[in-house]
Amino acid sequence: MSRRQPLPVRTAAADGTMGRWGDVRDRAASAAGDLSNAPSPHPPIPPSVAARSPEVAGLWAALRDVMDPEFPITIVDLGLIYDVRRRGDVVEVDLTFTATACPCMDFIREDIRERLLREDGVGEVRILEVWSPPWTRARISAEGRAVLRKHGVAA
Question: What are the CA-CA distances from residue 16 to residues 10, 68, 139 (Å)?
């Protein structure tokens, strides 16, 4: 298995716009300070996902490299990914957002595509927006809640 490189992500500029491209470690370090004692931002893939297909489990793992543009948490831990399917070289991702007017929708979609296209054999990524069931805070993983609370975000 090849060693993965961190996904470049946009970091917020002081004026609130999306600024420079960095990598996940830069973003997490700047948002959280020293993370050496922080809980792992990558909890294990749920057994039901891993049992379905090692290939799909690998795609879920890859999506853990995609950080939410506003909080130091992965989109998987935030509960934005509802499902991932693979048919040949095409990957379909069921994605929701925390709100219908989320200002980061395009950034998240772009980061998902970019990250999954780096996986072996992936030639196309289709993102399907899912609004039912609606996203709630209950979808945040326990690990994600701990990370958010550490940074003063109620979860």
Answer: 12, 15, 26
